[in-house]
């Protein structure tokens, strides 16, 4: 009986085995000589980290956008809700509101603490946001002249009868005031002539470009509005928006806020409450009052 070999292969089988051997050798060479370092992986990690930082930055920006902003404000106008958001207790807010009901004004950080009795720690946080009117933070010195005193020019203060009517004064008469030259006297006359009837009050000199408080004080020592322009005063509690915008320094936005505040208050009780109106031009308060009445 002849022995049959089990290792006898056909030509196709031998070719397959040979191809497999070649593939094994090729893969071993690749593994041995090709660098499979983590550079590409590291590059992907860097790109991923940058992407993560961008996402975090966008998240922070969104949080900042949705976080309520606290802007500078006048502490005299703190409401119940405003006080609560600032961290004040109900008692502290009530003390402030009771103080304001007496038509009294807080004019310093120290006075705010005396009235409300807030803690030092809370005061340190909120006081940098306090914004008082210019006449509080930068008061202009006023001269009080007695009957026997002299003004800076060396002349006795003039009586009302001795003063020249500002609505009839010529540019040459105005130039006699120290600090008034040809240009400023021309500005005063041009401003006066803008209105049929001239000035309503000397306070309107504040609206003339180039006049400093010191020069205005010198003008009012020699001049007075003796023939004021007649104006039909507008009732603050019934005025429409279109009526309010006819007043100097009040535009449609401010008129809207005035009516909004009037509605919330169920009517204004005093002109001083206008100072609580959003964006109200506080420095022009006295001029605006010339056109208003309160019934």
From TrEMBL:
Q: Biased composition, Polar residues: where in the chain?
A: 145-156
* Gene3D superfamilies the record matches: Photosystem II 12 kDa extrinsic protein
Q: What is this protein called?
A: Helix-hairpin-helix domain-containing protein
Q: Which domain of life is it from?
A: Bacteria
Enumerate the residue ranges of region (Disordered).
141-160
Biological classification of the source: Bacteria, Pseudomonadati, Bacteroidota, Flavobacteriia, Flavobacteriales
- Spell out the SUPFAM superfamilies in the cross-references: RuvA domain 2-like
Matching Pfam families: HHH_3
| InterPro entries in the cross-refs | Endo/Exo/Phosphatase_dom_1 (IPR051675), RuvA_2-like (IPR010994)
């Amino acid at each position: 009986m002849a022995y049959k070999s089990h290792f006898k292969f056909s030509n196709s089988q031998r070719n397959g085995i040979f191809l497999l051997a070649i593939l094994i050798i090729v893969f071993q060479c690749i593994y041995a000589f090709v660098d499979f370092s983590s550079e590409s992986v590291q590059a992907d990690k860097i790109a991923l980290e940058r992407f993560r930082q961008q996402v975090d930055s966008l998240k922070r920006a969104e949080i900042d956008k949705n976080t309520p902003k606290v802007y500078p404000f006048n502490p005299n106008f703190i409401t119940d809700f405003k006080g609560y958001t600032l961290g004040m207790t109900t008692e502290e807010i009530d003390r402030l509101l009771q103080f304001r009901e007496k038509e009294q004004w807080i004019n310093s950080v120290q006075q705010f603490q005396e009235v409300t009795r807030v803690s030092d720690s809370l005061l340190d946080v909120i006081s940098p946001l306090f914004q008082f009117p210019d006449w509080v933070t930068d008061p202009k010195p006023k001269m009080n002249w007695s009957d026997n005193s002299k003004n800076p020019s060396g002349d006795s203060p003039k009586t009302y009868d001795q003063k020249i009517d500002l609505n009839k004064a010529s540019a040459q008469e105005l130039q006699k005031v120290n600090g008034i030259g040809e240009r400023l006297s021309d500005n005063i006359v041009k401003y006066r002539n803008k209105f049929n009837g001239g000035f309503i009050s000397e306070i309107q000199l504040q609206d003339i470009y180039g006049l400093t408080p010191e020069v205005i004080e010198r003008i009012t020592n020699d001049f007075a509005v003796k023939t004021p322009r007649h104006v039909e005063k507008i009732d603050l509690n019934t005025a429409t928006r279109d009526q309010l915008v006819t007043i100097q320094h009040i535009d449609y936005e401010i008129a809207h806020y005035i009516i909004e505040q009037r509605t919330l208050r169920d009517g204004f009780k005093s002109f001083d409450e206008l100072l609580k109106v959003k964006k109200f031009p506080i420095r022009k308060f006295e001029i605006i009052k010339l056109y208003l009445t309160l019934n």
